[in-house]
Amino acid sequence: MGNRSRATLTEVAEHAGVSKATASKVLNGRPGVAEATRKAVREAIAALEYVPTTGPRETPSPQTIHVVFDTILNMYAVYVLDGIISGGRELGVEVVTSSLESETPGHNDPMGADRVKEIAAQGAAGLVVVTAQLTSAEMDACEQLGLPLVVIDPANPLDERVTSLGATNWAGGVQATRHLLDLGHTRIGFAGGPAGSLPARERLHGYREALESAGIELDPALMGSGSFYAETGAALTDRMLDLDEPPTAIFAASDSIAVGVIRTAHRRGLNVPGDLSVVGFDDTYNAMWVEPPLTTVKQPLRQMGRVAARTVLDLAAGKVPDSHHVQLATSLVVRESTAPPR
């Protein structure tokens, strides 16, 4: 663009052949505009590289919340989405979802600043990002565009510009491990999620804290990380059970990992919980229907979704959050997958 001055909304309207009021309606996602007209305005925005004035846009009645998931191929995402949709319904807004899932297994595409600009140009009242990693460029784009941003279970540390929501992952890790310690276990394995995931690291720190507080020396052979999927639980369980002194219990950083732990124990002829106790994390549908039913740390996933919907609309209305990082309490749900060691 060289030294050309910033395009104005008036210029966008003239380029699209509509009134400034109509261009504003399209920018802010308001009803009453034909789809062809919306397309013309969006093309004008792109052609002129129009960027709304920095700061919250005037959206007294926001219509849409855009939610971007790192992946939707797990029960965690389903529970969170259910909460966001429920919260949006209560607040009178619609929810649009997308995912960063790519065609390459195990690899998700980055969101990118251009995608943030597209979402803003479509008139979203705010953006909710779930478990995806955010770059400085993406956070800068939200700030420059005045697009309110809330992150659920951020994958990486965020600065004070970003409001985030999560569960008390560290406390949940302590709860799970203490439960196994109270049953009499001392050889307790940890099957963790991605090494770069902030929630996964917090659960690991809770596990370590509980063991250290009980005077039990940490054994690196009993700790491992991978993904939040059952394959990780299976691989880590096989490795731990091959040790000269295998664990009598395993704390898995998600219910899906725990399913992999239990299936592997059964495949190797072990009884759960007679030979191996297992604790998960999340309390999703998997926990109730695996055999035996899973003892797990309950995350308030639906509540997290509802709070995120309300928070992003509060930000759109110009309200300042009481805290930039909100943590909702976890609780231990004891079922049939844990028992004292033999």
TrEMBL record:
Which Pfam family, any one, appears in the UniProt record? LacI
Domain of life, per lineage: Bacteria
Q: GO MF terms on file?
A: DNA binding
Enumerate the PROSITE patterns for this protein. Answer: HTH_LACI_1, HTH_LACI_2
**InterPro entries, alphabetized:** HTH_LacI, LacI/GalR-like_sensor, Lambda_DNA-bd_dom_sf, Peripla_BP_I
> What is the name listed in the Swiss-Prot or TrEMBL entry for this protein?
LacI family DNA-binding transcriptional regulator
The residue ranges of the HTH lacI-type domain are 7-61
Keyword set for this entry? DNA-binding, Transcription, Transcription regulation
